[in-house]
Design a protein that fits this description.
Blueprint: E1 9-13, H1 18-29, E2 33-38, H2 41-53, E3 57-62, H3 68-82, E4 87-90, H4 107-135, E5 138-144, H5 158-176, E6 181-187, H6 197-203, H7 210-220, H8 229-240, E7 251-253
Parallel strand pairs: 1-2, 1-4, 2-3, 4-5, 5-6, 6-7
Helix pairs in contact: 1-2, 1-8, 3-4, 4-5
């Protein structure tokens, strides 16, 4: 049976991370030729090896998504190998700071996630958008926590960063739509199999026990369950596929009902 993404070329930035690797596995399983990009080659290679062992097509490139020339060059290299770029998905980390009241937060801590998130998504989307406009098709994806749309105390720089990138993506959808290019995003939060004490404390120094965080998030969600990587990856594969041809300029809610909107 044909896969959702048969014959498509997909670039995933942050492809060595938990969600990035999960999305890459699903894209490859659905027939896409996957190109993983990120700053840490070891994690990219680990993700690629898993895809290869399952019979998928994957290549890796160590690059910084904030480096305009490196991103532009990589997109051109991918296009020269495959003839096209069908999907671009930005999943890079932003350096979010949470758990500190906004009136007590340092300016740099607030702006870091906003600047990194917006800059990274702009650079990668622009590079893909130029190629996709030429070929008159393509899908540009990003992910955030929905904090920019639903104000939640304690989320620190995450809300402003989410809002800035989401607004940019909607404007981009309006501009690229007439050229056959779709721009979409995914809302998700508290993805259970990415949560670890190390990762949580990198964002919030005062985070309680991770298992209690997972229990709390599940109890707050409408479905009474945690979101998992596979939930996000399956949603992303649908958005990237031709079955979602009528969807652009909007966010797909994959929060298990943690956010109801």
């Amino acid at each position: 049976m044909a896969g959702l993404l048969d014959g498509k070329t997909a670039i995933i930035y942050g492809g060595g991370g938990g969600i990035g690797a999960g999305v890459a596995r699903t894209f490859a399983r659905e027939g896409a030729r996957v190109f993983l990009a990120g700053r840490t080659k070891a994690t990219l290679d680990a993700a690629a090896e898993e895809i290869k062992s399952a019979g998928g097509s994957v290549e890796v490139a160590a690059l910084d998504a904030l480096d305009e020339q490196a991103v532009d060059r990589h997109v051109q290299e991918v296009a020269s190998k495959t003839g096209r770029v069908d999907v671009s998905f930005n999943l890079i980390t932003r350096g979010d700071v949470q758990g500190i009241p906004l009136v007590e937060m340092k300016t740099d801590d607030l702006l870091r996630a906003v600047t990194t998130g917006l800059r990274g998504n702009f650079i990668t989307a622009r590079a893909a958008g130029r190629k996709m406009t030429e070929q008159r098709s393509g899908v540009i994806l990003h992910l955030n926590s929905a904090s920019g749309d639903a104000a939640m105390p304690g989320m620190g720089s995450t809300g402003p960063a989410d809002a800035a990138t989401e607004s940019f993506m909607r404007y981009l959808a309006a501009e690229l739509g007439p050229h056959g290019v779709r721009v979409c995003g995914i809302w998700t939060a508290g993805v259970a199999d990415t949560l670890s004490e190390e990762k949580m404390k990198a964002v919030n120094e005062n985070v309680p026990d991770v298992s209690k965080i997972k229990e709390m998030l599940a109890s707050m969600s409408a479905l009474r369950r945690n979101v998992r990587i596979d939930d996000v990856a399956e949603a992303a594969a649908f958005l990237a596929s031709d079955r979602a041809a009528g969807i652009t300029g909007t966010m797909l809610n994959v929060t298990s009902g943690l956010v109801l909107k």
